[in-house]
Write a structure and sequence with these properties.
This protein has about 270 residues and is of the alpha+beta class. The chain has two domains: about 170 residues, no CATH class; about 80 residues, Alpha-Beta Plaits. It has nine helices and four strands, in the order αααααααβαββαβ. A four-stranded antiparallel sheet has the order 2-3-1-4, with helices on one face. It is elongated and about 75 Å long.
Length: about 270
Amino acid sequence: MDPASATNRHKPFPVWLLIAATALLAAGLLWFEQRWPDTAGANGASLGLSPDAPAVSGTPPFQAAREALKLVFAGLIGALISAVHRRHPGDKPISRSLAQAQILLCVAGALMMIIIDNSLARALGIAGGATIVRFRTPVEDPKDSTVLFLLLGLGMACGLGEFGVAGLGAAFLCACLPLLDSIVARKPRAMMLEMTSSSPYFPAEYVNRLLAAYQVRFESREVNQHPQKTTVRYHCTLDPDTPLQRLSEQLTDAQVGGLKSVSWETLKKE
């Protein structure tokens, strides 16, 4: 397997595609809000009825489908912002679990507002249930925490039926992420790469070509040869967006490299 071709299969979404998706989603939400306003208002007020009109009983027509669309729109907003955030992360790359959490949190915000539905008792019940949840893995990057908070707000806007606000807010956030990324330069990471082969032979040529394909600058620091294995340590300087998990998987590919283990250690500032 060619290391360069392996990296090309995992390129992020093109910029033009993200811009088109953002504009299309924002325009679609604005159009939907104007075309089909919320039909769940009290006494039919949101339907344009006069105050003297009789109360509307039961579930308004197509209201269940509208509630389902709120969750769909929240999921689309979460997926779009997650794609933009993965292209312009903070100091650390966005993990797969965090990207999924961003989408689910946006949907959760919409679902909470649908369930609450102007009911104080429901709001208190959800608040009490939320205190039971414990997040064992804190978000270290302040930028990631802020994006999660904003996604929750956008999801709530979808749950309230404020599709215009949600669409414009999503477009604004998608524009802010690359803008903030361009204002402050991101520093490369210095890491120590330790690799252990499953035999006395160390595949240095394959390792060097693979690191070069990921644009990792490296130099050998230590080599320990044993009768059954060889351990090599590289001092690496790499871009914060470099996918370490994918790179490690390719390094330990038994059909090509023959490495038994790979570990990365972040170096402190000297």
